[in-house]
Amino acid sequence: MLPIVQGALYDFPKYYDLVFGSDWQAEYCFLRHAFHQLAQRTVRRVFEPACGTGRLLVKLAAAGYDVAGNDLNPKAVAFCNARFARRGWPPPAVVADMASFRVRRRFDAAFNLINSFRHLPSEQAAENHLRCMADAVLPRGIYVLGLHLTPRGRPTVTSERWSARRGNLAVNSRLWTVSVDRRRRQERVGMTFDVYTPTRQFRIVDETIFRTYTARQMHALLRRVGAWQIAATYDFAYDIQRPIVVNGRTEDVVYVLRRR
Ligand SMILES: C[S@@+](CC[C@H](N)C(=O)[O-])C[C@H]1O[C@@H](n2cnc3c(N)ncnc32)[C@H](O)[C@@H]1O
Fold this sequence. Notes:
By secondary structure, the chain is an alpha/beta fold.
């Protein structure tokens, strides 16, 4: 049994980035195809709200995009900016709330994958976020938004595991649904990181609340905000050749929203 450290996983960007940073290729290729095929303008400037450690921003910057992002967590932002500094690039990330921010110069495209949007705790925060994003993205640009919807009946995705290793550091992570309260629209999610280094082994235990969205609730929100048109929808296979039709049974979805 590993010794337990209670803490917020996002306060450990090195471990977060090892686990999720190794899994960037499918998302990266998908984003590039989406920028090329679904934006109705040339994409040069790209923004990521809730950018975390910048695992995708750094790949896009290496491909020549002009990138920026924000995140609520100062440790994640510092980690992201340090990885750019090591390459001699300017810091792309700032600490900010994705539900209330402004950008100085607008972007051609934006993206927000793996459920970060669901951290926004209320309908008002979600609406404010989509309006901030509408101010940040130029007309005919796109916003690629990936999240798990709550399907009708019993959701089937309840537990996920990832493992990653770099040198002497290994991290096994687990994420599982503790409970879903459809009325209050809250999914309680448990998360652990088992961390193995040559000198220490421990388990970081965290819990977070994700706001739930049925397809209908998500579409009503988008209609209310009005600034975004759904250009295409995909699942987490990230196959640009295979758009999906979202219905009441859909779980993972990537909306490609186009700025009107
Ligand atoms: C699942 S991580 C995703 C990080 C990154 N987008 C990625 O793909 O690796 C979720 C991130 O959302 C950030 N976050 C949560 N609420 C936020 C808010 N209101 N504004 C900005 N960032 C937020 C967390 O600090 C965390 O870094």
